[in-house]
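The material for today's practical consists of a large collection of protein records. Backbone structure tokens are a discrete shorthand for how the chain folds in space. An example says more than a description, so a record of this kind follows:
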Amino acid sequence: MKVALKSGAWIVGVSLCCAVAKVPPKVLKVKIEGTELDRAMLLQKLIRNGKDPDVVRHRMKFELVDADYDYRIVFATSQSTTQFTIWGSGGSMNSSNASADVFDSKGTELFRFERNQRGTDEGATNDVAYEIIKRILKLDKLNSRHD
């Protein structure tokens, strides 16, 4: 009887701790400027990477808007060639690149970067989405120290 009561109390205690520890996802409103395909691809990657607990500790949710945004992202993919050498001979192959310029709601440029020499546009876009999330988290951390 005592064991059952202790077990029940332990389960209730753990359940309450877990319920309190659950943090709702942070919703970020983003305006993405680029081609329709690039916009859709980047939004998809931001949403997927924002849910990934290995990428973001307290999940992030991205919402596409045209006004009243938290961040404006100017995004583009492009193609180039990559030189390679295998066993004494070489050549070139096509590679995908992606770039992002990220601004806050006031129009201040926060950061800019490129990811080059990826195998596909999706791979380059995924790397850009991951880096955007990482840098937004870093900015939030720096800004919270100043508040």
Observations:
- The CA atoms of residues 5 and 71 lie 51 Å apart.
